[in-house]
Each structure stands twice: as C-alpha cells, then as structure tokens.
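G., the chain you wanted modeled:
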Amino acid sequence: MRRLASVLLLGVALGLVSASPVLAQQARARHTASPVPAAARQLVLVVTPTWDTTSGTMRTYARSSAHAPWRRVGPSVPVVVGASGLAWADSLGADGDPHKREGDGRSPAGVFPLDSAFGFAPASAMTQLRLPYVPLLAGTECVDDTSSVHYNTVVDRDRVPKVDWTSSEHMRRIAQYQVGVMVGYNTKPIQPRRGSCIFLHIWNGPGSSTAGCTAFPRADVEALLTWLDPKQEPVLVQLPAVEYSRLKKSWALP
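Predicted structure as tokens:
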C-alpha cells in the first residue's frame, strides 16, 4: 500500500518459509513478541477456524495507549477470505505452516497497516472518510505480474512511462471493489512472488471466497471506512484460531 507509481499507489507483502526446523523454531520464538505497533490505536481482528477455512469473523477494537487494554467497538462481522484459506506473511510461523505466495489463493496472516481507501465514487463524494482515498478510474490497475517493476502496486495505466506487465486486476471492472481498504502487505520492500493486491472489500455473499483478500457485506465495509482514522495507526491482525490462541497473550490481543 505504499509504493507510488505515477498517480497512484499501493503494494502488498509476504514471507518465505524457514529453511530448516531450527530456523523455523527461531522464527516462531522471535515472533511471539508482539508485531502490533505500539502506536496502533485501532485494531481490525479477523479470525478463521483453521488455516484452510474460507470464512471467519471480524471484530474491531480501540485503545487509548500502547499499554491500555483493547476495547470492543461495533458488532461481529462475518467475512470470507482466500479460496485456500490463510497463510503466514514474511518469516512468521513454523516449518509446515502455509506461507503466502503469488497465486496461492490464500489471504495473508499476520499484522498489516490499513492506511488508504479506494472506490468507484469520486473523491468529492467521499469527504466523510479520514483515510486517504483513491478513486478508481478506467485505467486503474493493480499489477500482479511478478516480473514487473510495478508488481503489487496500484497504478494508472495511462500515466506510467512503460507498461511492462501482462497480468493485472482492472479494478474499475470488479464490482466488489466499489469500496474498499488497501492492506499494507508485501510493501517494505515489495518482494516478487510473495503475493499482491490484498484488500478489504465487498463480498459476493457468505458462501463466496476471494483470491487472497478479505471480504464482507458492503454496509460493514462502509462502516469500517468511516471508522478508520490514520491518526490512530489502524492495523489488521488476521489469524487462524489456533494461532490466535497461541499468540493472544504475547501479542496483547483482545
């Protein structure tokens, strides 16, 4: 969600599996320390029953300081995730756990910033939002071609110096992208083949799934957009239930 390309923005990130059981154990131990930024005051928590489940529940929380407890805000919301479930981002997790790759059909598990919104409406119609807002135009694409210099970036096709990709999402053509949030995954730095174009967006119903995003009813997407405040450093924490239970205390999750 971070890379600027001409007019527009975004990226998304992932991680590689540890090379040995020892490294896997070290990675698992290392990441029991909370990756939730101390500055975060808004939390979007998504939990699925298992790694391979395609549905789950989203809850939102707020806190007044880094050491204050998370306070529940709003109702529970049903969500759907990738058609193959979830997979760890970066070096999180252990050997044998799924780790996200481009085209794997999994949504990333971990902690990610939420700092930009997008949609079909013009910016003038979305002044109620506090997040920076990107209106999707006819030429707006999210590049998922791993060989492109614009990989995992939202760009305006008509304004880049050279179109070097053969695969992308034409965002204005996707009805579920009428309103959504960009998830800061695989962005610092952008790593080829670790996954791209990760969003929170409108679902296609409770029995649907996504290619790697997290989706839920339109009214709840709109409510979330109105609530998110960049000054509160909002983050998405997305985990299967077994990892949520294991990490809840060390990550200071609600």
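The first strand starts at residue 42 and ends at 48.

Shout if anything looks off.
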